[in-house]
């Protein structure tokens, strides 16, 4: 959805609106930005599922090893393409590239090398917030409480006039994360009126923000664009997730889905400005439909290569390294706690032996003054 939105409706690379495509395809692709909302909805479901029964250290290990390997490749490869062929966009200075490697660039006011990275910072915020639940131990009750508190934060953030609250409430997107959590609770246990009520409230809030998201993505065209396809897209996303939560798709065990799912993240990271650059270079030599299909095929192949050659080995290395670091931290923390516990005891014992006679005499005098019982 996101790839179609970028490649078909944005003028980057094509030099103008890509009128080479049919109006029907063009207008359908205009709503592909909803793929990010779908991604957040899935993320709430999957993160709650993967964090269940895990410690905070295990949660951190799984998220870091999942997000960073492909992301590092995406940043470096995109920066290299933009430096060598600055046709569509110029790469910023080396400092910007290095800061982007942290995935924290938005927090320190540094621009993204690729515009698609904006959603990753929101995803990191969700991880940090949900880490509080993981630290305490993921339970049904704590997940419901988390959903309620985050909903309240999103509702009051604007009126509270608090930048801190607004930053962490993530109001336009939190309804999707929260709904994903509620859907997973339905899937793990069973649907209840409470969980359906959470989903219903979040669905209404999501519909409230659709118009703003439409304006954000289509700009001036929003004044003449119909909003109902975007609203329908949100309805379909919630309906499909509800079907998953109710077990409708439990029998779907197609093996190719695992590979397809593995490609989505590197494809998201790599496709935008690398694709725009290739479009700009080839648009006058290859018919637009052929170029579009060839570009999609190339990006899928590139994503598969990143997954097999980078994500798997580097992710395994990161998991092992973080695991060893956590074990070392726990071992040293236990040793430090034991030494701190033992030190005051030894000191007290030494003091007692040193002036035991004085204390004994004082105890005797105090005892002699006590009335008999």
Highlighted features:
globular, 373 residues, mainly alpha
Describe the structure concisely.
The chain has 373 residues and is mainly alpha-helical. It contains 14 helices and no strands.
Overall radius of gyration: 28 Å
How many DSSP helices?
Answer: 14
Task: Outline the biggest β-sheet.
Answer: none
Percent strand: under 5%
Q: Total number of β-strand segments?
A: 0
Order of SSEs = HHHHHHHHHHHHHH
Helicity, as a percent range: over 70%
- Tell me the span between the first and last alpha carbons: 86 Å
Structural class: mainly alpha
Mean pLDDT across every amino acid position: 88
Large-scale geometry: globular
Instruction: Give the low-confidence spans.
Output: 356-373
Can you describe this structure?
The protein has helices at 2-9, 23-29, 34-51, 56-84, 94-100, 118-136, 140-160, 163-169, 174-188, 193-218, 228-245, 256-282, 288-354, 356-369. By secondary structure, it is mainly alpha-helical. α7 (140-160) packs antiparallel against α9. The protein is globular.
Topology:
Elements (H helix, E strand, L loop, with lengths): L1 H8 L13 H7 L4 H18 L4 H29 L9 H7 L17 H19 L3 H21 L2 H7 L4 H15 L4 H26 L9 H18 L10 H27 L5 H67 L1 H14 L4
């Amino acid at each position: 959805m996101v790839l179609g939105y970028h490649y078909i409706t944005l003028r980057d690379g094509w030099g103008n609106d890509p009128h080479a495509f049919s109006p029907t395809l063009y207008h359908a692709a205009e709503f592909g930005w909803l793929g990010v909302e779908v991604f957040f909805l899935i993320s709430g479901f999957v993160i709650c599922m993967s964090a269940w029964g895990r410690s905070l250290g295990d949660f951190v290990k799984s998220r870091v090893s999942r997000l960073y390997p492909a992301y590092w490749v995406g940043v470096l490869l995109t920066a290299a393409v933009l430096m060598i062929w600055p046709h569509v966009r110029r790469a910023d200075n080396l400092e910007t590239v290095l800061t982007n490697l942290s995935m924290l660039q938005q927090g320190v006011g540094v621009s993204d090398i690729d515009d698609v990275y904006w959603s990753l910072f929101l995803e990191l915020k969700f991880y940090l917030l949900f880490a509080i639940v993981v630290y305490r131990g993921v339970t049904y009750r704590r997940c419901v409480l988390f959903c309620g508190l985050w909903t309240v934060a999103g509702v009051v953030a604007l009126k509270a006039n608090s930048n801190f609250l607004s930053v962490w409430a993530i109001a336009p997107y939190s309804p999707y994360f929260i709904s994903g959590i509620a859907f997973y609770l339905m899937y793990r246990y069973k649907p209840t009126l409470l969980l359906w009520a959470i989903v219903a409230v979040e669905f209404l809030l999501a519909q409230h923000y659709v118009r703003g998201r439409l304006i954000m993505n289509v700009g001036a065209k929003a004044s003449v664009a119909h909003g109902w396809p975007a609203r329908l897209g949100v309805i379909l996303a919630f309906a499909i997730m509800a079907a998953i939560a109710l077990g409708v798709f439990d029998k779907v065990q197609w093996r190719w889905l695992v590979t397809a799912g593995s490609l989505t993240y590197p494809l998201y990271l790599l496709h935008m400005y690398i694709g725009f650059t290739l479009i700009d270079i080839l648009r006058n030599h290859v018919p637009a439909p052929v170029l579009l299909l060839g570009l999609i095929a190339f990006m899928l192949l590139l994503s598969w290569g990143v997954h097999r050659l980078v994500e798997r080995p580097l992710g395994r290395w990161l998991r092992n390294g973080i695991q060893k670091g956590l074990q070392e931290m726990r071992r040293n923390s236990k040793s430090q706690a034991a030494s701190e516990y033992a030190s005051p005891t030894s000191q007290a014992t030494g003091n007692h032996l040193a002036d035991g006679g004085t204390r004994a005499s004082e105890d005797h005098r105090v005892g002699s003054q006590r009335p008999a019982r």
